[in-house]
Amino acid sequence: MSTSGQDQTMTAGEMRLRAIIETWWPRVLIFVPAALSIWFVNRTGTYRALLFDGGWTTRFYVLAWIVLTPYLGWLIMATGRLTFSLIKHEPTQRVDEFFVGAAALILTGFGFGALSILYPQIVLGCATVVLLWDSRSFGTPQKSAVTLPLVATSLMGLWLLATVFLDRAVIPDVISTDVQQLYAPYLAEVARNHSIWLAPDNPIFSDFEIGHGNGLHLLMATFLPPHVAQIVSFLYFVGIGAVIFELARLVLPLQALGRRWEDAAIPIALGVAILGLAWPRTMPSVKAGLYIMEFGKYHLQTAAFFVYFLLVVIRSSQARDRLAAGICGLAVAASYPLYAAFVFLISSLGVFTKVLQRDRSGLVTSLLLGCGAVAGCILAFSINYLYLGIPATNPYSLFRKIASVERFSQFGSLDILDFFVLAQSLEVSDFLSKSGVVAFIRQAKSVVLVAALIAATTCAISFLDSKLFPDRASVTKSRPLPSIAGVFIVIAYVASVRLLDMTLNIPSLIRLSIHVNALFPLAAAAIACWGLVIVRRLVPAIFAGRFAPNVAILALLAACAWMTIWFPWQSFRDDGAIAFAGGRSLIQMPRVSLNWQRCDELQQSTGSDRILALNGYRAMVPCYFSPLLTRGKIIHTYQSDVARNFKNIALGTADTAEATLRSLGVKLFYVQKQNCDFWLNGFSDVFQSAELEKRFALHSETPNYWLLTWRDGGQPLSPEAEAGISALRTRSKDIYRQAYGIEPFEVVKHRLSPNGQRADITALDQLMTCH
Predict the structure, then answer these.
(1) Could you report the per-residue pLDDT of 683-726, keeping only the tens digit for each?
(2) Would you indicate the residue range of the signal peptide (predicted)?
(3) Residues 605 and 523 in one domain
(4) Are 333 and 325 in contact (CB under 8 A)?
(5) 531 shares a domain with 632
(6) Are residues 608 and 749 located together in one domain of the fold?
(7) Which residue among 37, 288, 537, 697 is least enclosed by CB atoms within 10 Å?
């Protein structure tokens, strides 16, 4: 009897175990491709192979990211679903899940980094738990009506996304100087230190300021190389397309044009989204659209949230919108507080329209968006000031007055920032561009004219359609007009941002505002559709045809094809994206011009000895913080322990400079031949002609550069090398005086008053060649 009971118990236990295995093994198995891909992209030597060798390493690298990217997108979506399930128990849209998930991860990564627990084991463990939790909801996908226009536009969209993914996301950015020295290095430091806080021997404060609040990137960088920032940007690129699709469904009043137009709403909205993502430019100073932005930066993250905020304040508010507005506004401002200016603009537009509509729920949502941004600003500025000693270095002139010199001196030099302000104020043109207003008016007219042309053409086609293929049933039912508030918010936002970046000569603002390019097709289509609504109200018989919506979809498809071929596809072809996926090394890519071999050569010839470059700042960009070199080998001009001692090295005496450099372990000094781009420490008194002969010896010389070291009783510097270096340094000062009328370095060193007059700013072009 007992034996039989034991057998039954064992059988029941085995059945439970079998049920558990059958339930979970497919979910566990689904993570195997991701695990293999993570292992491959993190292999030692992968980056070197991508740069110099290519071949199968590059091919498998591309394949690994193709496999990994859906998992990263799934993690963001799953986090959004988890957040909603914990706070708001109501149905959500996929676009809300994405952005709320991204905001939750931004704040989580920020928090983990502040607590110094950004370990890959913790991050991957939490991510696995979230994905396993989300996998419980896997089931039969919802079926939607499949039509030929929908299939055609979907294929067009997939083609666009595939080309942008291969061209901008998969290929590591070895072109942008900012990504290499301001973005990727901080992500590498976070992965090394498991924290957002800076290491004393590598105080990259500017990277900290722009990067420590981007928690989603920080989380990903703990278990993936810094290149993951480009993949995250691509996911935001897709998110922007999804938001434009939802906005088009809201602001285009197609339902007021008749049933057939309403049936065509989804493919039309998808076509407008494709046009937005592929839209090239709207002003001469902006030479490209979203598809060619620097994906290694954070601009696409903020752009995606900005357009999502438009969606939140436009649609009828629900509880989910209040959660999304609050958490996303907080996350965006916390990532970088100055972004709150755009959030305030969107919040104000929402408040204005909701007050007019007497929509109390929508008013609360818009207010929560602004309040979240305020809270994020306070959080970010407070952390920056308490840690760095300055709320932000941009705009520097505003925050310099309240900076704590003692606290900031632990990370950098305010004297260097003073030098930057002086040099940049001498270099840029007037802050306010009077011609910008005229250009803005001209651009606004062009948008209205395009919209009018679209409306007129559609009316003509609809008229012919109504005569040739009449369908009287489509005009018998009067349809209510939708709210025009959404169109107003989109147009007002685009106009406000474009007016700002066309009238204010601020390069950073222009780069940040590129995202409004994606909204121009939506704005033009909205104006055209509302014009058609007015015509239909006056002459309803014009819209009594059967096939005009199909013609509109066909024309939209043609426009999308032309736009993607002439812009994103052309960029894809010119950048050699297919060649990279086929195994071409990065240094052989068409637009790569920087000398990466120099970095490798310096590493091989000097080992772990640190090198201070006296000139050739732009030429040395690939070597600053390069993963090819030992950490901190090539000393960065304004972000390093050497830059932190700028007052002793560059502004002090030759003896003080030598003592400080020796105490920091700096033994080697790089001087590039035929390059007058001396910068900051290169103008120190210790590198004057007389001091060169007395203090330095020649470590090595190539046809391209000299490498100096301390003399230490050895042979003095040869007269030829000393004369060559001195001539370059003297010519550099002459060029600065020719360009600025003064020497910016001497102004900072001797606390002089700048005369504020430029002589010939084009003379700076001679720095790279010394002509």
Answers:
(1) 888 898 888 888 898 888 899 899 999 988 667 788 888 888 99
(2) none
(3) no
(4) no
(5) no
(6) yes
(7) 537
